[in-house]
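new request in #modeling-help
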Amino acid sequence: MIKDLVTPENANVFVGKLGDILEKAIDKPLGYAINWGRIWSLWPVHIETACCSVEFGAASSPRYDVERFGIIEAFGSLRQCDLVVVQGTITRKMAPRLRLVYDQMPEPKYVIAMGACAITGGLYFDSYNVLPGIDGVIPVDVYVPGCPPRPETLIQGCMLLQEKIKRMKARKFV
Amino acid sequence: MHAASGEDQEDEGQEVCMMSSDTATTAEKKPVAKAPPPKPAAKKPEPEPVELPVFEKGISDKIVEKFGDKIEVAFVKEDRVRINVGKEDVHDVAEFVRDELSYDHVESVSGVDYPQDNEIEVVYHIGSYSDSSLARQVLVLATRAQRETNPIPGNDATKLPTLRDVFYSVEFHEREIFEMFGVFFEGHPDNRRLLLPEDWADLPPLRKDFAIKGR
Amino acid sequence: MTNELPPGLALQKVDERIMTLNVGPQHPGSGHMRIIVQIDGDYIVACDPDPGYVHRGEEKMAEYRNYITNIPHLERPVIHDSCNVLYPYVLGAEELLGIEVPERAKYVRVIASELNRCIYIMYWLAIYGIFLGHSTMFMWPAGDRELLIDLMEKMTGARVTHAHFVPGGVRNDLPPNFEDVCLRQVNYFEKRIKEYAAVFYDNPILIARTQDTGVLSRQDAIRYGTTGSVLRASGVDYDLRKKEPYDVYDELDIHTNVMKEGDSYARSRIPWLDMIESCNIIRQALQKMPKSGSVRTKLKPNPKGKGLDSVYKRVESGRGSLGCYIVSDGKPEPYRVKLSVPSFRNLIALPNLLRGEKLGNMPSVYWSLNYWPVEADR
């Protein structure tokens, strides 16, 4: 019966519909499992933008050890990363590079804006070379305030992101 | 601590105030030997003359002896000697300082914008590693370039001779001054942009007429 | 992606043989800067450092703020060495504004800046370890520097950005019982960093990777105007704490560490020796410090300079001599503030050191220059 309905002209429509049906079927039972997997293996990309990288480094140190929450140390290859932690000020020279890095990462990807400079420009609100926040460049999931934020604050921000991923729809990216 | 001016015959060129508004414009024309500068000390609070440090005085004397009225000793303080020089002679003075006085590197090159004088000052802070008696000393060599109201960096009159062939260490410093003030260094091999974004099309940002937003 | 790349992102092709590589700003071995290297096979033939990714216009902003409100943002270039980066500015402002500093405050400053120097070098060492793929050397210093960060937190109230030095002294007096805690922590810290020799500095793999790479001769070190550990690793005995003592450094017994080799190994060893020396200085300062007294001269609100004046002060920071040139025109705001930072001065050695090296040696040479990109860009 289905064979009669599918013709070369409307095959695309059918495949699309089938994808929708599959996504819906997967999302309910498997969405939780997919998100659970994403939560505990967030790989931040190794892009340091300003001085908050000191506290990001401290968060990976033995005392704070962000790895026990499933945030792995900063990693070199963009193709395997799914988290951008924007570590501080984004200048006008850095902004196109940040966008390039973000564009090259595969879906799903999440962004944490760390520090006052990444949120509003912070102390450098009137500087000629600093962007007033990174929201204009890439979409932000979690804002972590502080100048610089303590490692505990960064860890809390990461846990907030995990909470957020848990409630996201998994099928958007399937 | 200020140098007292007109104390004896050799330091007539010294002024109490380092940068009265007309020092650099008259630096080349003013015959130092016969006309002591008008003493602004009439309104200075400390009346007693300050004894100049001997070693630093010796350094400035050597330079004065060589160049005479082409240069002007702005101040002699403890560990710091400041020489103002016109842009024609800055290269010669730098070579003399390197070869005869064994200063060997430039620590810092700063630009200072003076829109009221229509000039941009470039200040070299020169130090020495190889001569241990000069380890505390910093020789401040200041020169001034003409300032344009509408700058076209690289293509206007704001030019200075480079010191890169005398002191290799000024290479990146002079590149920074070029982009921050628009002072083109003639003879510099690599006058490209360094710190600013590649698409910067505004005024050079450290000039006084470049106002930052909201201020 | 369109064919038209933004200016500065496209790389030009040089030759059939020579390839242009773009290391950074997103690269595990570059930090916040870009190094454009041209390689022939495995060897670097030319290198063009491209800093400026964190250029935030600190010097322009300083012209719009008065001498006191300049303090927080002028320490941001090196937040883990924030006391030292602020030190020359504070010394210069004191001379311009004509302020005397109490004796106890000078000792507190010395202790704070030496602690900060250790904190900076520990972070630098951690990154050096991870650059060379030595993960233990990331974990040990990153964990041990928290000891000193705790001390600084007790002293100033903040983990890294202290804003502790003000013209006229320091912001707060030491907390009660600080001397004992500091002595205990510093003694333990010294014992701990001496263990690094076994795992890092005597490690044959590290020695094989860093010895005889990036050799900077004594003449070149002087000619390039390098400073700090880079200079002292090339055999020049120059330390401003000894040559031009500021505050109370002339009352303390300081030993300068010098090595003759001038290679990456010497450049990585000197900061570690400096840390041991810093522990000695802290112990001496704790002993000689007046036990009580004021730590801060009260300032008038909105202090002004006396008139047209300029001052150039320099201190020895964790990376080398750090100068600050302040021009005042008698207004509450400085007319011009220029930071002459050691990272920017050491950067000129990088193209000359990398020429002829193997590409794999680039991280070890680059980070051994004690370079912190945020500071170089200001």
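bot summary: The first helix of chain A runs from residue 2 to 5.
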